[in-house]
Design brief:
TIM Barrel; 2 domains; 7 helices; binds zinc ion
Length: 282
Amino acid sequence: MRGKTPVIAMVAAGALGVAAGGWPVLRAQAGGTEAPLRGELSAVLADTTWPAPKPGSWTPPQPSPDGLPPVVRNIQTQDRVVFLTIDDGYTYDAEFVNLVRKERVPILTFLTSTYIKGNGQYFWALRNAGSKMENHTVSHPNMVTLPPEGQKRQICGASDEIAKQYGYRPQIFRPPFGSFNDTTRQVARDCGIKSFLMWNTEFYNGTSGPGVGFNGFARGDGSGKNFQPGDIVLMHYRKGLAEQFKTILGWIRQQGFRPAAVENYLPRALGGNAPDKPGKPA
Ligand SMILES: [Zn+2]
């Protein structure tokens, strides 16, 4: 299913437009070709599926006892997988989309919805390359500085806009700057958010990180410069992303790791695709 998508996408790309509101529309075709075209596009627009981990190969994060969205910082697994997450969205890089498609790399986008206005088609392309669009607020404030109603507008507003544009209402939230309080978790739940996905490593792509320099990589706990199984890597949509992405893919492969889709390691109760009760190993 996944393997066919890029080819079909190329075939259909010439006929795929994106309406001002963001939904793709079929341009009128002469000669009554709409029906076959629609058939092709339904494959392009279908949700991409990524390989699921083997039952028992990881410890699924659990719901929080207080009933609010739990905060996930990495995934407990022995498999040599890492999870690439990319935040914000104020730059556009067509070469990056091509790379994600060609290399078939699972990524997860935390979209700041104000950037849909300029780059709506870009994120459509990435959505169709397999990246879900999850919630990173409307305008990227520090949530703890806002009263409850302001926080709620930021989270519900972004979810409303993303659902309208991309046909999927976010269930996973990442607070800007990693900053949140209990109010954030309460209002996020009210907006339909089921978990907060943080990170434990950062690739400072296109910028400099403290002590690691330009395009540096850092572990949050300072434990060396190598990947560890289950790392969640923070990156950003910045200028030069395609080249930066090649760089981190090179590091991942050199160390014998592979990128995997984090949503397949999160139970449905947390906004992912994994069963809520993991299957028993065969
Ligand atoms: Zn951000």
